[in-house]
Every structure is written in structure tokens, then in C-alpha cells.
What does this fold into?
Amino acid sequence: MVDAIIIGAGHNGLVAACYLARAGLRVTVIEKNDWIGGAAVSRELYPGFLYSNCSYVASLFRPEIMRDLELPKHGLQILPYEGGAVFTQSGGYLGMFRAHDANRREFARYSARDAEAYDRYGRDILRYCRFIRPMLLRTPPDPASFRPRDLIEMAWLARKMGEMSSAEAARMVRFWTMSVADFLDDYFEHPVVKAYLAVSGIIGTALGPMSPGSAYVLLHHYMGDVDGNIGAWGFARGGMGAITKALTASLQAAGGEVRVGKAVKRILVRDGRVRGVELDDGEEVLAARVMSGMDIKRTAGVVEDRHLPEDFRRGVARFKTRGSSGKLNIALDAAPVFPALPEGAPNLKGDLHFTDSIVRMERAYDDWVDGRFSRDPFQDCMIPTMIDPTMVPPGKHFMSCFVQYAPPKINGGAWTDADRDAFRDTCLDQIETYAPGFRNKVLHVEVRTPRELEAEVGLTEGNIFQGELTFDQLLFNRPVPGWAQYRMPVKGLWLCGSSAHPGGGVMGAPGRNAAREVLAEAKRGSEMRDAYAVL
Amino acid sequence: MPSSDAIILGGGANGLACAFRLAGAGWRVTVLEAADALGGTAAVVAPAPGFRAPFAHLLQGPDARVARAMGLNIAAQEIATTALSATASHREIRGGQVEGPDAAAFAALHRRLSDIAGALAPLRQRVPPVLGRGNAWGRLAKVALGLRRLGATEFREALRLLLTNVADVVEDELTDPLVQGALCFDATLGAWTGPRSPNSLILLLDRMAKGPLTLPRGGTPALAAAMAQAAETAGVTIRTGARATRIETDGERATGVTLASGETLNADLVVSTLPPGSTLRDLVGARVLDAGLFTRVGQVRARGAAAKLTLALSAAPDFRGADLRTRLLVAPSVPAVESAWTPVKYGEVPDRPVMEIVIPSAHEAGWAPEGAHVLSAVVQFAPHAPADRTAAKAAFLANTLKVLEDHAPGIGRLIVGADLMMPWETLARFGVPCWHGAELSVEQMLFLRPLPDLAQYRTPLDRLWLAGSGSHPGGGINGTAGWNAAGRILEVGP
It folds into this structure.
């Protein structure tokens, strides 16, 4: 008998486990895979090469959690990007640099007006971040409830709106609901500049850049920081697994344990209360509390229907988890060469894209709507080993290519191996166009379509956010209206994964928020610091 | 000495409603209409000699307050919808009723959406609240309370539905592709969005909040005529063929209007029912307007995606037995609507457009010669600015006729005249870039319509007001925006 079982040793499950353990609860984390990490892993899938084979970059992970759980002490280090580029079909490129002024000058190569607009754009985005960020580490209020905690929270929200001038408030509401294409049109004129900035509006979502609501997704990707540098992205040294490795070390230091290779078959319920879990091998692990880091569909899937109200089950069935992305993880014999870039340019030390217009991005999305993978896909490619040599043998490289769009089903049917191979070739061919000779340097490729993401990582339909980030599934709507406060309809069962507010990205916020709710109910104090303000 | 107290630009439903309300308060009001006829899009199209059809062929309105005050006695009958099937298994939709597998589910969904629409409907008749540091929290709270009264579960459901997309909702709740397609069509009718785009459901809610869909006797032009008569009786001066070319200013204040003829009319107040872009950028201009506002008004989205096809037919078409006295929808499924939308994002023409068909001559005489018929269709989605307009229009017409032929075999042989108006032609004729003066979408609704600082009908230029479909609550021939604006003017003074 332990005090709490956490299902899934992903970053959110581990974050929740750490907070509970540090508050003095006896905690066991149960992981179905033989390794720890969920979607934040570094795996050696080719001898000598560590792959960040799921999530591949860091920014959103809450600094408050890093401090609370002493992750740097346990080995976590985030290295910021030093570049980035969009390659154009005409053989040129738009580069990104660490210095804001360098970016401005780069934009000016395309449009002087866009260079000027970049400052205004940055200021506005920061203002929106300042409003949203404090909500990440709070439990959403239930707007239909008259309980004091919900009324207080609603009042807090209203007050935050009230702090703004009416023009500011209106601009922000408009921003939340519009498409990233429309939003960028308000600032920029050059298609390449817009294509570069639109990327954050589509990553991970089943939306195109012209879909309303994609501007919010952009913000979701801007809310993070690296060392306080808002909006910056970076690599975890040693791959994304470094995050869950540090969390595991932190957990163990606090007395918690992780059991790997154990799948949960059933959550045990008696008299409407959680009793523990039953594992695949028949073993029963008992605890008064179970927190699930699995997505809501999988969580509900291991609870017998009779324990869940029908409304709730319908809400779960309706929750959208459509996957939209795939991934190629590539071991390279040598660094790829992109002739468009000047020699020694720092741009390879960041995100590389080949989609030079929003129209091409949107057309890639049209393919997804029609039930096929994009013929001219959007790729977000990284070569983390340009900055972090610890992942590969000397002189070699690991390249991560995040690809959109890849539907959960191909023309209504399951992905086949032939589909997967065609998908791989489409992506590799695109890279080859911009980096001739690339394919000859490829030592090994791991291809992950939504099928693989679901089978291995347990992300239903391959949705990397454990549920789409659209407004009908955010805040008090996430994952099911009325059940957005981490508490599930069975007493003692809690949700701590990205299906809960504030959603996906390697953020850790759902885990921390859920832990706060559990500790409050257990009447345990915790050592959580308040959310940092954005200055 | 001003020649009138107020000049209203535009003699459509909003202009006439606004003029009537101001005149009722004792103002001397002049309405200036650029066209030769009043009514704006409540106009007549003639596809062939002897054939006529209303441009705006159905009515949700007029606003009850406008109808009451102006004494508009419109004989209008509610019209049912037939979702056409290419295999003759049509579905007739009457209010919340439909036959087939979705009968119960559709009734439940319709009731839920009607309840939400009903709770939101009062917002349409008010001046939009000011967000942020303002005084409107109380009023917003009242609307929220109206929603809350639906019960906790329904309230939460309403909050989820407000910003969702219509495709997911119909796929979650219904199974019949024809009914799903019909709801997707209605949600996106007149909008620049597809059914899978987030925030598309609220457009359906807004449509439901406007009231039942009716066919007025004599068509919408008859309503326009009744409104014009009421306005004139109330003492409003109406001038047609009077195109304004400039709004005259003195410093930061509007003083009158100059017409294409060169004539200048002075007034204490100018109210424009033209789209915000035309009003502020073309008629006022950068010379006077704050540069920031000038830019932002230019960014108000106003892309039209609806085309209007009017066909003169030598005999009654046969839509595989469908009742010609209903509104016929060709929108057979969610993917059909979505794929009709997709090409328009790129300024291209869809292979198989979707459409709403009304046959006025099946309802009353006078639209077509005896025995002949006139078919009026809103066809979506049409590109508003294709690279080659002539080619796009030809392709769009060919594709539309192909779809029509599939649903009414032999209709092609009956055609004796056709009139197709693409979005840019609607703009040229009526001055509206899209149906609503500015696109109707969440980011341009309520306190955001057309821009936050213009949302209470007043503009930063003293004595210049907006009262058209580019303002809250948007288009439709109902006069609501004009009536709301006049009320605000009377409340706070010019």
C-alpha cells in the first residue's frame, strides 16, 4: 500500500510524483515501457546515437518547476538555439539569429517594412504572454459553479481583463480567436517572413495556418522561455530524456520509486472510490489515490464504464485527439550541407524549415483534411548535435524532423508499412532538394507516424498534446466541461497529463497543478512557489 | 446653415431604419443612395426579359422593433428546407424536425442550439459592450446569467460550443450526411470560412438568433419599398442616384457630404451604412484620419465567398421530386462543404460548389412568365479575388451548372437566361465586399465589430457614425444595426 500511484513516467507524471513525494507521500510511478520518459526521452536506437525521438526541443517547461524540484542540480541543462532558417524554393534563405537586431536586419533583406513591424510584433506577443502565462499554473475555474473557489478565480480572471484598457482587451480577445495567417497579415507583407513566423501556429495541431484559433497555438509556443528569455527555445543537453532523467533523480531523492515495464490493465474502484490499479500481470498495487498521466481517453479506458457518469463518458468520446504530425529521427554520418547558407553560418544551430509560404503550409493541411499525409509536407528540422555533442559519436549528427501533416488514418484506414515508407521518402526527398547529398549521409532513420506514436508512447491517435489545443478544449473545457480541475468522477482518481489544463508541450504544468489539487485535498502543505510574473 | 440634421449614406434596410428612428425624434434627415433603387441587396435581378428574382432571396427579419415602429406589415411565410440527395432520398427539415435516422438527435441538437441562440439573441439588439476598463461588465454578466439559467450542464456545454467548429458538432451528434451537410452549409453561408474551421458554430448560433427563415410576399424588394415609404411618411428626404464621393470635414469633425455630381450637402451629423473600409478610407481618407486607424480599417476582413446565380427556366425544374416551394440545399455532406471551401482559400474555384436554391416563381406569380420559372441560388464558395476573373467566373458557372444538372437532370435544357454575380461583381453593384460589410467571424463580432474602437457605432471623427452591416450585429435585411446606431445617437447625442 502506497499513498499514491502515478500512471505513466512521462514528464507530467513525474512532476506530479515529485511534488507528492516531497510533501511526504509514499509514491509509486508505474510505466508500461521498459524505459522512463514518455514523450520526453533520449533513446539509443542506433549504436552510439541518442535520439530525442518524440519531443525534440524545450522551452515551455515551467521554470518554477525546475526550481522547486531542483532539476539543474539533478543534471538538467537547456541550451538555447543559436540560429534557424527557412529555405526558399528559389535557392535562398531567411535566417534567424540569437540577437533581435540581427533578425531585424535579416527581415530587412526581404522587406524593410517587415523589419520595422518585427518590433511591434514582438511587443504585442509579449503582452499576450503576460496575460496568459500566469494562468498556466492555476486550476481553471468552473464557470457554472457558485463555490467560493470558483467565484474567486472567476473574479481574478475578470480583474486581469479589467486591468487592461478596452482597446488592449479587445485586441487580445481578437487575437485569441483569429488565424495565424490573418494575425501575421496585420504586421508583415513578405510571404517568407510570414511563413517563418507562422510555424508556431501549427506545430502539433490539426489546424492549418488559415484556421481560426491558430494564433492562440502560436502563443502557446511562445509562452516558454530559456533562462528567462521569453519565447526562446532550446535543446536539453543529452536529449529530451534529460528532463525526465532529472525528474526521476529528483523523485528518488525524495523517496519515490518508478516501476518500469508494467502496464496498468485496470483502475480498481470500490464503492465509487479508487482502490489502486491492477497490472497486466495480474498484480494489484493498492493506493487511496491514483493520478493518471495518460490521456483522458486511455484513462477512461481503464476504468469500468459503470463507474463513470454517462455525461462524462460522452464528453470523453467527443474530446478531439486527432493526430496531425509524424516524425523522422535520423542518424547522420556527417553534417548536412545546405548550399543556400553561407559557410559557417550559425543557422544550422536551430530550427530549419523548407516551407516558404503560408499557402504551402495550408495546402499541406488540406491533404490532412482529405485523409492523406502531405505531399509537400511542412518540416521542423533540428540538428541538436550542432550544439550538444554529447548525443552522438564525434563528427556525427542526430537530426530530428517533425513533420506535418500526418493524419491518424490514411483514407479512413490504418497506416500500413508501405504508407510509412512513402511518408519517409517524401520527407527525405524534400530535405535532399535543399541539401544535396543528404540521403547518402543517412545511417539510420526511425519513422514515426501517428500509428507508432499511439502504439509506443500511448498518445491516442498520435496527438502530441493529448488533445487538440482549440478553444473548445482549453481552460475550463479541458478535457470535459465540468471536469477541468484534475479531479475525475471516481473519488481519488486524478488526471495529471496534457489532456488537462493547460495542455501539451513539455511543460509540466498539468502535473504540478494536479499535484496541488491532490495535496490540498490530502491537507498536505507543499513547497510550491508562486508562478513567476513575466516582466 | 446645414441642409439637414443628419445625412444617412445608403438606402438599404439599415439606412432606412436609422433614418426613420432619427426622423421620429424630430430630426431632419436625408438619405443618399448611390443606386437608382432603394433597398441595397434587397434588389431585383433580371436573368432574361420577363424574368425577375430578388437578389437577397430570403429574409430573417426585419428586426421586430423596426417592423413595429415602421408599421411594416410583411406577409412572410416560413420556408422549410430540403437537403437534396442525388438519389432522391431527400431530407426535409422543418425547424427542429427531420425524418430519418437523426430525427431524435437532430431535435435534441436543435433544441440545445436554439436555447443558446435564444440566450444570446438579446445581444443583437444592444450596442456592444466595451471590454476592459469600462462599464459593461454588468450587462455582459446579465447575458451570462441568461445562459446560466439553462442549467449548469447546458451552460458548460454552451461555453464549449461557442468557439467550436460546426463539423465536429454535427459529426459528434448526428449520423445522416445530408443533415450534417445542411447544418454545415447554414453555418458557413455568407462567411469566409469552412465548416472545419474553429469558431464556425457561432455563426450558426447567430443565424438562429435572427429568427425564422421566411419568404416575404413580393420578395425582399417589397420589404425595402415598405421601409422607404414608412421613412418618407415620417418626413425623411430620400435621394437615389446620389453617390457620395467624399465626407467633408472641418478639423476633426464631419460637416457633410459631396456627391459625384459635385454638389455638397451639409449636415450636423453623417451616418454611413456603407462598409467601414469604404466610409473611412475612401470617403474620409488618410488626409483626415489618424494613420493607425486608417491602417487598421484596411485590415478589417471583408472577403466575400458567396456568388449569386439566377436562372431563367422555360419550365419547372425537377429536383428528383423535391418540393420546389422549399429551400433546396445542395450540400450533401460535411466533406462536400469543406471541399467546396478549400480552393477558395487560394483564390481558386471549387469543382463542386454547394448552394441554397429558392424558386420564387413556385411561390407566387409575377417573377416569371406563365409556366416558366426563375431559380435563385446562393452558390458557395466563390473566390473574391482570383488571378483571372473572367476564367474563374466561367469555370465557376460551368461547375455550378454541372452540380445543378446532377440534382435536377435536364435543367440545362430549360435555361433561357442566366445571371451570375461573383463576389467582386456584388461589390461593384451594391458596394458590399462581402455579405456583411465586414466578414462575420468571432474576431469581428460584438465589441470587436468592425474594430474595437468603432464598435459602439461612433467613429473617432466627430459627428461621423457607422450604422451598416459592417457594424454590430452584421448583415441580413433586418435594419438592426441602423436601429441600434440611431438609438445610440439619440442617447449620447451627435
